[in-house]
Design brief:
Shape: globular
Number of strands: 0
Distance between the termini: 30 Å
Length: 326
């Protein structure tokens, strides 16, 4: 399958899934309701609730998918995931600190800003631990350290939560959800995630060269230091922007690139755009499932569903890798 055809099919799938997500469900309305200016309830539900929810899902899925493809290409490891360098956990810690101290009620963007600040702090910590000339292996080990530290501090804050309601708020946020999506969240996340995608998209040539080995990549004029910086900062923006507004949503960056890799002839650079589109399709579809299955007082969280999909897939991938090992 040609890359153009694959991207076209994924784009069509994204449009179709997005339309279904906008109009399906209780209180479904006709497409004309989107353009109703009379203040009808159906029009308000579509424009103020479902449309921003779907757009936010597209943005978050694209960021997670593209970041996963880039990280797997950079580390030359199909088990790599956006969480591998600690960005997701650091962004989550920033948001948890905001919730713990009650800062989220101070103004509308307090929680997203705290999440992005946590992601930036995680990236800075990664550089301090790994150093400037770090190899891919060193970055992985440093990412594990950042991930563990952020997770430990998050658990400590949950342990010290002043009351059950504060603990519940933190726990529910960490499960990841698009249920509270609004145009405010879209307006905040869109520039951050799109900036991350703009940093990651031009890395295709460098990733293809790196797949031939570091020495070969250097001989082809690829600056590995600049490539490493772009990978880390692009991932921080593309993933951190999503975590900041929707909580932790895992495994998308692991599952989507692995499924699509055979369709691009295992070329890391050619996988970035399809993974962004595929990630968007998966998030929008998964969010639609959570919305349709959730009942009154029994919500199904998006991060829980993606984990239920991704964890068995990860175990299968590990077993498959072991069988292929010499």
């Amino acid at each position: 399958m040609t890359h153009l055809r694959l991207n076209g099919l994924l784009l069509v799938a994204l449009v179709l899934v997005s339309l279904v997500a906008i109009f399906a469900g209780s209180g479904g309305a006709a497409p004309a309701a989107l353009f109703d200016t009379g203040g009808a309830l159906d029009a308000l539900v579509l424009r103020e609730l479902r449309l921003p929810r779907v757009l936010l899902g597209v943005l978050i899925g694209a960021g997670l998918g593209a970041a996963g493809a880039v990280l797997q290409g950079f580390f030359r490891n199909p088990l790599a995931d956006p969480g591998v360098i600690g960005v997701s956990a650091s962004a989550g810690l920033g948001a948890v600190i905001c919730l713990y101290f009650g800062l989220s009620a101070s103004f509308a963007l307090a929680l997203p800003l705290a999440g992005v600040s946590g992601a930036a702090l995680g990236v800075a910590s990664l550089f301090l631990i790994a150093g400037r000339g770090a190899t891919a292996t060193t970055l992985i080990l440093a990412g594990v350290a950042v991930n563990a530290t952020a997770g430990a501090v998050t658990a400590l804050l949950m342990n010290l939560a002043p009351n059950p309601w504060a603990l519940a708020e933190i726990a529910y946020w960490l499960m990841g959800s698009l249920s509270d999506a609004s145009w405010t969240e879209v307006g905040f996340a869109a520039p951050v995630i799109l900036a991350g995608l703009m940093v990651l998209a031009p890395l295709a040539r460098g990733l293809d060269a790196l797949g031939l080995g570091e020495e070969t990549a250097r001989s082809l004029g690829i600056g590995l230091g600049r490539l490493r910086l772009a990978v880390i900062f692009g991932t921080a923006l593309a993933v951190g922007g999503g975590v900041a507004v929707a909580g932790a949503i895992g495994f998308v960056g692991l599952v989507v690139p692995h499924i699509l890799r055979p369709l691009v002839e295992h070329r890391p650079g050619a996988l970035i755009l399809p993974s962004a589109l595929g990630g968007a399709v998966l998030i929008v579809l998964a969010d639609l499932v959570t919305r349709l299955l959730s009942g009154p007082g029994i919500p199904l969280y998006l991060g829980v569903l993606t984990a239920l999909i991704g964890a068995p897939f990860f175990l299968w991938l590990v077993r498959h890798s072991q069988r292929r090992a010499p």
